[in-house]
């Protein structure tokens, strides 16, 4: 049972990473741009399959169904082998690294404080303690 859960977890991570790779990553941007230029060539007709693929690579939700079909097939055929688990683990770790890096690199959320105004029943939401009258912060 644990091996099956590991296969599912690795398959999920692989689908997440491959979908992002196709739709959003800078490494595949030249391919997406070339495909988009081919589909939207001035004076040229749009090939049906090229238009479909061009739309597909612009939508993570759309791409993930096709990517997951391939990953699930791979998991079914070789889920217990290193041929599936090692690449799936690398893709999963890559996805997790991207998520953690974007979380760590993003600015921290603004913390709001609720300040009770003395001698009244009202409160005020402030962004920092320095916004409260009579309060100072030391750095």
Description:
With 139 residues, the protein is mostly helical. 61% of the residues lie in helices and 6% in strands. It has 5 helices and 2 strands; from the N terminus they run αααααββ. The protein has helices at 2-23, 29-39, 48-56, 60-78, 82-105; strands at residues 113-116, 123-126. The chain has a two-stranded antiparallel sheet with strand order 1-2. β1 and β2 form a beta hairpin. The radius of gyration is 25 Å and the shape is flat. The protein starts with a helix and ends in a 13-residue tail after the last strand.
Spatial strand order of the main sheet: 1-2
N-end to C-end Cα span: 54 Å
Q: How would a textbook summarize the main sheet?
A: 2 strands, antiparallel
Beta-strand level of the residues, as a percent range? 5-15%
Which radius of gyration do the C-alpha atoms yield? 25 Å
Stretches where pLDDT is under 50 for at least 5 consecutive residues are none
